[in-house]
Design brief:
Chains A, B: GO terms for molecular function: ATP binding; catalytic activity, acting on a protein; proline-tRNA ligase activity; transferase activity. Two copies of one chain form a homodimer. Chain A contains 15 helices and 23 strands. The first copy, chain A, is about 35% helix and about 25% strand. The interface between A and B is large, with 60 and 59 residues.
Chain lengths: ~475, ~475
């Protein structure tokens, strides 16, 4: 029951059972806990803080590009879903319904929002009258609910946290530009901040957002070779404008429909960064979102460790003041070795060891979580050395993830080839596709892989469809996905 | 339909109809809009940004005092509410219920959280095993729902945004200390940041939180003399620990129940700051939370205004770089006078006027939204002068609000006296109270005023109950309240 006991429990090795490894790690590192409500998790402080760092940085980037936040109701009247045909078909099976409130049955039942296109479309119709009111560039940070049959913490939960941007524009060109701009922000953020390489591309029609004209995604590869859709950006055309009557008086004094977009990322990103970077010792957290970036641990013979105290406090204060998220674990009843394991399991990017001899020499030791590299650094240069190592850890994490992805990226020409790959090694497979839904479905039925996207930058352009052998219209990446 | 037309519409004067004034102002200033769901509003960007500034600063203060954020599910199983008797009685009438989800009827219906004591209590019971796990200091930023019969934008809406802190402690003394510490943080924040003077005190038993041992509040006075409870902090004793089995192994190796607290403020604060500071020309926003702190407007003869452009851009950049939230309105087809009215209505704390003659003299003009004071300042000292005026505006807003509250604070000795006051002038009335619920209810029935709190710092100690004439146990402030 004591904490100490809890941490020596083994983590299932990734090779043995990746799913068990994942659950072991997020539970032990106290990122989450299961709640008593089906499919809903509790974000514990270390899990939630990762989200806070993601949120702060994305929010900064959204505002820098002219977006503002707003907040729309959690409840959506049933009739709203009927207005856009594809949208209702896509989301209806997953909705939870409020049917009673305040002791009475409701006249019209209310869905808990799975996404807010309908509610926001309704409001935009009131706010947008003239081309002078455009563009409208609004984002919302909110909880949404999709009643999922199979759930997995962070990656697929009934309730999750996300941001949803919703914009309205005068022209198609402007709306398409916005769609791509936000996709680019997602890619930059996920690579620069979470150290996850991603593949940008367009979704096939069967995989696009319910109600969109075109959906674009960034796709990341987990360490078991499966894909996660890490962010999406949709060009809606005038589908929602027609459904919700978002009309404006144009420059030629005629009524026109606005062109809208939406785009979002969610707490799935937390699951993704764990599955991309973690190893058999536990979490490996990207430095920019790690709740603790540096853990300070006094070392050396127990009876001498006290001598380190005062100087260690000074160094701690110096690091903290420079904006580094540092923690000190100077508990005397717990051994340094046990602490090393604990904070490795928790994924702290840099360990700072300091012992009585280091003290005399004016140095201390930095250890990288990702490579295990040790650096003896001068105490007088500690802040810059720590910053440098945090930066190096980020780079190395990104490089390793990129290498892993490249090593598990295959080009295939037949369904048999893909099937064999999916069973043996997993990964992303590039293949030609004729554009028919029948062939796409055949791939899924035979291999378990779904089309991830049609990459913007493909190494290769395939000539024939891997299923029917007809001319390929697109070169598509298929993978099993979370 | 054009924006210009919209703003010249009159605002109902406060004296004529305070409620209509309030709605006129928040709609015209585009802080909110009504949604198609009963009692739920849309927070438009300027309204939501006020909340963002409130949130950022409170969050900073919570973290500084050792609290961390987490996130718990939106849904609460019906059985959870049954566990704490007072709690269920207090909240049951206001709950919305999810009865269907994913196309099926639920086995146990789920409430949308009105507050999270029950869910969090359930989780704390899992996490807290030993006195070494204490204290647990967690806060949550979330949406909550209470299905209200009568609603008012920001002040009482079915869905609202808030933070709820939930802490667990080893001893009663420590939990009580936390309760008071958070009440103090609320008071400081509301006074220092929103320029609203508040009265700290303890709630009478009939007005305390459902399930609490003691509830404390800060109460603010609106410009119509009515009260708003601007924040509350509760000492729960072991009520929720017993109900949810939050037990831990104490220092004496015996099982003990944790002592818990909870504390919260909500988007009501937005409604409060509008009703405390606004005037017949519109909003008056406290500088620290105003989305736009300074509005720059080029003035002078239209044909000369262009000359101002380049220098105005430089000053704008200087202000922006120094962290001031500045906006420029240099639209040439709209007159300066119209702009003055517009940004006064929107409550922008400082207007910066700059004309061709000012340009020659190296000066510009700052105008205070609250007093109308004009200051001619040197352009070379603009940043510090703007900061000084923002600070002065804050101080003056606080002083005016304090003066208004003092002018509407009455001491009464009989129910007749209170009744007359409530009908003529409104305001806060200090009175003796014997402690019986019968007398408290009599006050409400006769005057419409409810007990706000038993102030910690009372000017006066009353000897007899204003209703029954028996010995007064407490000196209470009564007021009509939102």
């Amino acid at each position: 029951m004591s904490k100490q006991k809890q941490f020596v429990t083994e983590i299932t090795p990734q090779q043995e059972d990746f799913s068990r490894w994942y659950i072991d790690v997020i539970k032990k590192a106290e990122l989450m806990d299961y709640s008593p409500v089906r499919g809903c998790i509790v974000f514990r402080p270390d899990g939630y803080e990762i989200w806070e760092h993601i949120k702060d940085e994305l929010d900064r980037r959204f505002k820098e590009t002219g977006h503002r936040n707003a907040y729309f109701p959690l409840f959506i009247p049933e009739s709203f879903f009927q207005k856009e045909k594809e949208h209702v078909e896509g989301f209806n099976p997953e909705l939870p319904w409020v049917t009673e409130a305040g002791g009475e049955e409701l006249e019209e039942k209310l869905a808990i929002r799975p996404t807010s296109e309908t509610m926001i479309g309704h409001m935009y119709a009131k706010w947008i009258q003239s081309y002078r009111d455009l563009p409208v560039l609004i984002n919302q940070w909110a909880n949404v609910v999709r009643w999922e049959k199979r759930t997995l913490p962070f990656l697929r939960t009934s309730e999750f946290l996300w941001q949803e941007g919703h914009t309205a524009h005068e022209t198609e060109a402007e709306a398409r530009k916005e769609t791509m701009r936000m996709l680019a922000i997602y890619r930059e953020f996920v690579e620069d901040y979470l150290a996850i390489p991603v593949m940008k591309g367009q979704k096939t029609p069967s995989e696009k957002f319910a109600g969109a004209v075109d959906t674009y995604s960034i796709e990341a590869m987990m360490k078991d070779g499966r894909a996660v859709q890490a962010g999406t950006s949709h060009y809606m055309g005038t589908n929602f404008s027609v459904a919700f009557d978002i009309q404006f008086l144009g420059r030629e004094n005629e009524l026109e429909y606005a062109h809208t977009t939406s785009w979002g990322v969610s707490t799935r990103l937390i699951g993704s960064l764990i599955m991309v970077h973690g190893d058999d010792r536990g979490l490996v957290l990207p430095p920019k979102v790690a709740p603790t970036q540096v853990i300070m641990i006094p070392i050396g013979p127990a009876k001498l460790r006290d001598q380190v105290g005062g100087r260690a406090d000074e160094l701690f204060t110096e690091l903290k003041r420079s904006g580094i998220r540092v923690r000190m674990d100077d508990r005397s009843d717990i051994s340094p070795g046990w602490k090393f394991n604990e904070y490795e399991m928790r994924g702290v990017p840099v360990r700072l060891e300091i012992g009585p001899r280091d003290m005399e020499n004016g140095v201390c030791v930095l250890v990288s979580r990702v490579s295990g590299e040790k650096r003896i650094v001068e105490q007088s240069k500690l802040v810059e050395e720590v910053k440098r190592m945090l930066e190096d850890v980020h780079q190395e994490m990104y490089e390793r993830a990129r290498q892993f992805r490249d090593d598990h990226f295959y080009s295939v020409d037949s369904i048999e080839e893909m099937k064999a790959l999916m069973e043996e090694k997993r990964g992303f497979t590039l293949a030609g596709w004729c554009g028919s839904e029948v062939c796409e479905k055949h791939v899924k039925d035979e291999t378990g892989a779904t089309s991830r996207n049609i990459p913007f930058a493909s190494q290769e352009s395939k000539k024939t469809c891997l299923v029917c052998g007809e001319e390929a219209k697109h070169t598509v990446v298929f993978a099993r996905a979370y």
